[in-house]
Amino acid sequence: MLLLVHGLPKLFNFEHELGLIEDPFGLGARLTLSLAIFAEVFCPIFIAVGLLTRLATLPVLFLLVVSVIWVHPEWSLAEGQFAWLLLIIFSTILVGGSGRLALGTGLSHRWPLLSKL
Length: 117
Description:
mainly alpha
């Protein structure tokens, strides 16, 4: 859902989204939007295939925390429920990791450091 609802529209409408994106840390709209696209498009793909799963959840979690705390602090629990739900889901993935059928599981036999990520 993160990929389809938030990521792909940002990717396909990059120029339009530049005018809409909030920049809470003053990095500039282009860099902020690029980082959001990385967290909302590429990281969910890595997670879905099970490649560097735990590492891929970190940008997503950072993006969600920033959006809930700095970008939309006025949201009530009802208004921010999708963000809170995603925080719970991606935190669970961070703790639990991918699964035994994940692509990263097969690669970790060749490169043991990958199993830690």
